[in-house]
Amino acid sequence: MKFYANDINAFAPRGLRPGFVDDPQFRGFLEALPDGAAFLEIDGTIKLANGKLELLLNLARADLVGSELAKHAKTAGPLIQKLAAALHQLKRIEVSGALNSQRNVFASLSILRNQEGGAYGALLTMREANRQHRPNEGSERFRFETETGEVARTAYHITPRLHGLARKGEMALERGSAILLTGETGTGKTEFAKRIGHSDKAGAVPFVHVNCGMLSDEQFDVEMFGIEPGSPLDQSTRGKLGFIEAADGGILFLDQVTDLSVTSQMKLVSFLETQTFSRVGSMQRRRARFRLITSTNLDLGNKIAEGVFRPDLFYRIAVVTIALPPLREQPDLVEAVADQMLRRINLIRKPQLRLSPEFTDLLQAHSYPGNLRELSNILEQAVACAEGVALPEHFMAPILAPARTEPKHMEVPAPSVPAHASLKDLVQGFETWILEKSIAENGSKRSAAKALGIDIATLVRKTKRK
């Protein structure tokens, strides 16, 4: 009879399992570990598994416990087969590789023995390698990178007012509450979301930025939930990682959530209710846990009233609402951000640009309907037109967002009614009051005429009559 190495390992002594394995405290110990962990019987059966291993393998605990480890090699990846083979040979193993979910992990399997040297089980641990950079290569890397515009490349400056809002957001995230960011376009909602999520710090959890305006109904399932490897829709044979899986254990930021169609909103509500999903081409339910931040520059109350935004989605995303103030209400922020942008510009500009006091005064006086994006645009125009010093003539507000002053909301007294006034006088007096009120609210006669839908000459004539 011939014996092979595998046979010798297979005949290694087995020991009785210690009683502490069945103690609830041991389950609590596994659950408290920072990595995915499982206790395996000597025959490869999964006895216990913690929640973090569920997330890494994208398998429910009910599907893991009581099953053989080797059976999950097809759904989780060949790395699982290596671990199962090592357990069969009663060998300790450390291995790294990619799971089918496209997570790069480091796994180790240690054989547990009693005092007599008999093996009674194994401890499997698994953690994600370089989690903050996941995924780290190929086209998938581009899909999950943060968008980089002019504002995004600028170091985020936080004023005392913004600091208070940021602290509110950080506390909400720590407690697992969904955050809705509101504010005009260009107020820095994306940068604020990254700030409260600490995405710029080493070792930060994944921060997945989703531009909802790019998701059509046809793309929603594929982009959000991903494609099952080997399914009929999988052209790459590797599957496709969805935004939800990419954000697992981190933060999912749904930018301009109001751009989603009602159909896509319904799918999002369904996921948020159950915290489970299925990849396209798969019937298996998977679980993902992350913290949610959404943003919009629209009035959600109006959108709900118009029937284009689901109220049940609103209640799930707006647990904590943070309204970011416009730039015109933060003169201290204008100076700080302009200085940061100028330093960035001067890194590649010769000669370096300086702002004249007069140009700086214009920056401070401008109302910025486009907020941070408009400030960036004004400085870029000065860079293109000025030599070494930006002068007042180089201050040019964007054509699509012209400089404007805030309307002066003056109280216009109601017209006095004479005791014996005729109907004609009453109508004329009321008409004059309406015109004067519109002029006060719109800042000029021309703007008032446009708002009222009448010719400027008509407005001037009617305001001059006695």
TrEMBL record:
GO terms for molecular function: ATP binding. The keyword Transcription applies. It comes from the Bacteria. Keywords: ATP-binding, Nucleotide-binding, Plasmid, Transcription, Transcription regulation. Transmembrane segments: none annotated. Gene3D superfamilies: 1.10.8.60, Homeodomain-like, P-loop containing nucleotide triphosphate hydrolases, PAS domain. GO terms for biological process: regulation of DNA-templated transcription. The keyword Hydrolase does not apply. Residues 159-384 form the Sigma-54 factor interaction domain. This is Sigma 54-interacting transcriptional regulator. It holds the Pfam family AAA_lid_14. It comes from Rhizobium sullae (Rhizobium hedysari). The lineage of its organism: Bacteria, Pseudomonadati, Pseudomonadota, Alphaproteobacteria, Hyphomicrobiales. PROSITE patterns: SIGMA54_INTERACT_1 (PS00675), SIGMA54_INTERACT_3 (PS00688), SIGMA54_INTERACT_4 (PS50045). InterPro entries: AAA+_ATPase (IPR003593), AAA_lid_NorR (IPR058031), Homeodomain-like_sf (IPR009057), P-loop_NTPase (IPR027417), PAS-like_dom_sf (IPR035965), PAS_4 (IPR013656), Sigma_54_int (IPR002078), Sigma_54_int_dom_ATP-bd_1 (IPR025662).
